[in-house]
C-alpha cells in the first residue's frame, strides 16, 4: 500500500554558471520505489551532518527540466527513509508524550503524520463498531443489525431519548418547523453561514489540494510523508506478538490512525531492535487498552525547497569558503542588500533565495550598486527580485512613514539611535532638525516636544515629510523648510523663535561638521548681558582614524574656531571595517554664539 501526503513546490528556473549543472550518480544504492538518485557535484564537497536534515544528506529526485544551465527548486528536494508506528488517533497524543525521546526531532517538523484516507467524520465514529465496546462479541449479522438500529435513529431523528445528537440537516429541518426570533438566535450554524471566510490563503490552499488530490504537510506545505511499506503478516507480526503477547492479533484498521515518526537511527530496525524503553511503553499500553493496534511501517519523508532555511540554501549554492550574505536591511517590504564584489556573479540567485525565504514580508530585493555621492544623499539601487516599486511604508515607534528609496534616503539601522535621542527630549523642548529627510526623528519628536522645525535640501524628501506629517496627524506641531542647512540655521536664529530653540540635530554624517560654522555669531548683534538660550547640538560624523573620538572632536573645534568645547562623544555603529559613525553632543559655547564673524574673515 502506498499513501502520499505532499504538495510539490512550484518550479522556478535559475540561470547559473555551467559548473552547477554537472550531475553524477549517487554512491548509495537507490531504493526500488524511487527513481535513480543524482546529486549536484558541488554539493558533495561539504561534510555530512551527524544528525538532523541537511542538503548534503538524503537522496535527490532529479527534475526532467534540469540541464547544464538551469537549476530548479526541485534540485533541493531531499528524501529520507524512516520508520514509523501506526497507532489509533485516540492514543496518539498519549504515546507521543511517552515516546518523545525516541521520535523524530527535526526542526520545523512534527513527529506525528496523518495517514491519508482513513480519517472519518467524528459524528459518524459512533456508528462504527469499536473494539472493547461489546460489538466484537456478536457475530456479523448482529453487528450489522446494531448498525442499522443506530442509523435508523439518525435518519428519523429519534435521538432525543437515546442521547445521540441530531445531524445538522435534521436539526435545521426541525428548527424550520417552529421558526421564530428566538429559534433563529439558537441556530447552531448561524455564525458559520453569516461570517465570510477571511483567510483567503487557506481557502486557495484547500482548493488546490482538492484539485490535485494531495494533502500538504507543514504550515507551508514544505514536507511530504509517504508510507512505502507495511509489515506483512507473519514477518514483523511475530515480533509484535512476542512484545505484546499472544493475544495480540492483526485486525483490520477501523477509524482514524496516525503515524509516530521514529528517530532516524531506527530507520532500518524491526520491533525486536527498538530500544527497551520503547518496547516497555508499547507493552504497557497494550495491557491497559483493549483496542490498541500497532503497525511498524516504512516511510519516505520528502523535504522540499520551502523547508530549507535561507542560509542552508545559500551555503549549498555558493562556492565553498565564500561568506554567506545572510544579513540585510529591511525597509517596509524591501530587502536592502550590500553585496560584496565576490557575490556579484551570484546576485540574481542570492536575491531570489532572499525573496523566497522571506515572503510575504519581503516583496522586493535591491542591492546598492554605488556609494552615496550625490547632493541629496540618495542611494543608487538595483532591483534584483520581486516587484520594481521602491515606494513603501515603514512603521517605527508606532509612526508610519511613506518612503521612496529611489528619491530619498532612509536607514532602519538608525532606529535605535533615534530612540536614544528621543529619550532625552522633554515637552518643553523646541527642536530643529537641520537634515530631517522624510522625518523619522522630526515626526517622532513632535509627539514629545512643544515644537519642531524640520528642514531638508531634497525637495522629494520635503514632499514626503509633509505627507508623513499629515499621515500621522502631527502637521500642526511641525514646520517644514526646504533650503540649505547653513541658510536654515542662520534664518532660524535671525528670527524671533531663536530664544525658544533648545535642541539642534544635525544627522548628515559625511558633512554635518562642516555646517557648524553657521553657529558662530548667531547672537553677535544682541547685548551680551541679556538672557539667552544656548542650544544643545547633536552632530553626527564618520571617522576612519585610529582614535575616532579624538579625530571627530578636532574637526568640531576647527569648524567652531573654538578650543574649549566640552563634547559628549558616543560611537553609534561600525558602518564599514575601520569606519565608525559617531555622535557628538555639546552645549554651544557662549563665546561662539557672540563671536565677531568680521574678525574671522
UniProtKB/TrEMBL annotation:
| Amino acid composition bias (Basic residues), ranges on this chain | 196-206
Identify the PROSITE patterns for this entry: SAM_MT_TRM5_TYW2
Q: Which GO terms describe its biological process?
A: mitochondrial tRNA methylation; tRNA N1-guanine methylation
Would you tell me the protein name for this molecule?
A: tRNA (guanine(37)-N1)-methyltransferase
What does the subunit section of this Swiss-Prot or TrEMBL entry state? Monomer.
Q: Where is this region: Disordered?
A: 196-215
What job does the chain carry out? Specifically methylates the N1 position of guanosine-37 in various cytoplasmic and mitochondrial tRNAs. Methylation is not dependent on the nature of the nucleoside 5' of the target nucleoside. This is the first step in the biosynthesis of wybutosine (yW), a modified base adjacent to the anticodon of tRNAs and required for accurate decoding.
Q: Where in the cell is it found?
A: Mitochondrion matrix; Nucleus; Cytoplasm
* Top-level taxon: Eukaryota
Q: Which family does it belong to?
A: Belongs to the TRM5 / TYW2 family.
Positions annotated to bind S-adenosyl-L-methionine: 418, 456-457, 484-485, 507
What is any one of the record's Gene Ontology cellular component terms? nucleus
Q: What EC designation does it have? A: 2.1.1.228
Q: Name one Pfam family in it.
A: TRM5-TYW2_MTfase
Q: Which species?
A: Glycine soja
Domain SAM-dependent methyltransferase TRM5/TYW2-type, by residue range, is 328-590
- What GO annotations for molecular function exist for this entry? tRNA (guanine(37)-N1)-methyltransferase activity
Amino acid at each position: 500500500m502506498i499513501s502520499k501526503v505532499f504538495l510539490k513546490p512550484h518550479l522556478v528556473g535559475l540561470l547559473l554558471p555551467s559548473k552547477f549543472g554537472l550531475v553524477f550518480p549517487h554512491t548509495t544504492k537507490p531504493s526500488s520505489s524511487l527513481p535513480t538518485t543524482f546529486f549536484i557535484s558541488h554539493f558533495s564537497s561539504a561534510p555530512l551532518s551527524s544528525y538532523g536534515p541537511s542538503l548534503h544528506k538524503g537522496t535527490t529526485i532529479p527534475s526532467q527540466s534540469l540541464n547544464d544551465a538551469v537549476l530548479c527548486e526541485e534540485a533541493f528536494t531531499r528524501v529520507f527513509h524512516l520508520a514509523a508506528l501506526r497507532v489509533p488517533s485516540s492514543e496518539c497524543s498519549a504515546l507521543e508524550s511517552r515516546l518523545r525521546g525516541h521520535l523524530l526531532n527535526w526542526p520545523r517538523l512534527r513527529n506525528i503524520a496523518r495517514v491519508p484516507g482513513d480519517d472519518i467524520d467524528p459524528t459518524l465514529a459512533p456508528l462504527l463498531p469499536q473494539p472493547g465496546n461489546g460489538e466484537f462479541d456478536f457475530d456479523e449479522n448482529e453487528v450489522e443489525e446494531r448498525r442499522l438500529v443506530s442509523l435508523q435513529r439518525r435518519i428519523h431523528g429519534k435521538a432525543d431519548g437515546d442521547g445521540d445528537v441530531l445531524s445538522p440537516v435534521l436539526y435545521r429541518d426541525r428548527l424550520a418547523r417552529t421558526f421564530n426570533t428566538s429559534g433563529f438566535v439558537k441556530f447552531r450554524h448561524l455564525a458559520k453561514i453569516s461570517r465570510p471566510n477571511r483567510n483567503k490563503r487557506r481557502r486557495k490552499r484547500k482548493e488546490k489540494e482538492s484539485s490535485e488530490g494531495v494533502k500538504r504537510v507543514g504550515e507551508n506545505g514544505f514536507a511530504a510523508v509517504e508510507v512505502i511499506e507495511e509489515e506483512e503478516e507473519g514477518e514483523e507480526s511475530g515480533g509484535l506478538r512476542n512484545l505484546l503477547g499472544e493475544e495480540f492479533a492483526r485486525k483490520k484498521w477501523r477509524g482514524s490512525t496516525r503515524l509516530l515518526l521514529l528517530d532516524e537511527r531506527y530507520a532500518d530496525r524491526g520491533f525486536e531492535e527498538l530500544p527497551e524503553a520503547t518496547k516497555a511503553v508499547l507493552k504497557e499500553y497494550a495491557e491497559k487498552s483493549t483496542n490498541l493496534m500497532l503497525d511498524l511501517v516504512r516511510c519516505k519523508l520528502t523535504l522540499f525547497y520551502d523547508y530549507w532555511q535561507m542560509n542552508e540554501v545559500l551555503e549549498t549554492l555558493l562556492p565553498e569558503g565564500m561568506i554567506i550574505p545572510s544579513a540585510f536591511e529591511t525597509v517596509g517590504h524591501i530587502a536592502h542588500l550590500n553585496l560584496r564584489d565576490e557575490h556579484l556573479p551570484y546576485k540574481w540567485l542570492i536575491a531570489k533565495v532572499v525573496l523566497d525565504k522571506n515572503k510575504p514580508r519581503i516583496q522586493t530585493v535591491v542591492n546598492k550598486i554605488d556609494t552615496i555621492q550625490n547632493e541629496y544623499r540618495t542611494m543608487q539601487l538595483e532591483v534584483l527580485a520581486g516587484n520594481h516599486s521602491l515606494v513603501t511604508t515603514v512603521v517605527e515607534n508606532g509612526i508610519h512613514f511613506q518612503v521612496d528609496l529611489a528619491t530619498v534616503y532612509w536607514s532602519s539601522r538608525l532606529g535605535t539611535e533615534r530612540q536614544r535621542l528621543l529619550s532625552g527630549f522633554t515637552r518643553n523642548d523646541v527642536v530643529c532638525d537641520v537634515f530631517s529627510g522624510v522625518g523619522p526623528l522630526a515626526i517622532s519628536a513632535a509627539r514629545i516636544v512643544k515644537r519642531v522645525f524640520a528642514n531638508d535640501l531634497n525637495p522629494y524628501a520635503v514632499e514626503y515629510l509633509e505627507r508623513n506629517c499629515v499621515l500621522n496627524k502631527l502637521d500642526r506641531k511641525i514646520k517644514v523648510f526646504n533650503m540649505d542647512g547653513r541658510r536654515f540655521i542662520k534664518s532660524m536664529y535671525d528670527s524671533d523663535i531663536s530664544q525658544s530653540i533648545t535642541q539642534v540635530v544635525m544627522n548628515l554624517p559625511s558633512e554635518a561638521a562642516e555646517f557648524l560654522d553657521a553657529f558662530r555669531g548667531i547672537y553677535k548683534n544682541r547685548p551680551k548681558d541679556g538672557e539667552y538660550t544656548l542650544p544643545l547640538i547633536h552632530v553626527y560624523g564618520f571617522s576612519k582614524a585610529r582614535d575616532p573620538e579624538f579625530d571627530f572632536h578636532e574637526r568640531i573645534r576647527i569648524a567652531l574656531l573654538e578650543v574649549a568645547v566640552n563634547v559628549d562623544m558616543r560611537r553609534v555603529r561600525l558602518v564599514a571595517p575601520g569606519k565608525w559613525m559617531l555622535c557628538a553632543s555639546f552645549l554651544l559655547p557662549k563665546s561662539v554664539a557672540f563671536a565677531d564673524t568680521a574678525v574671522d574673515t
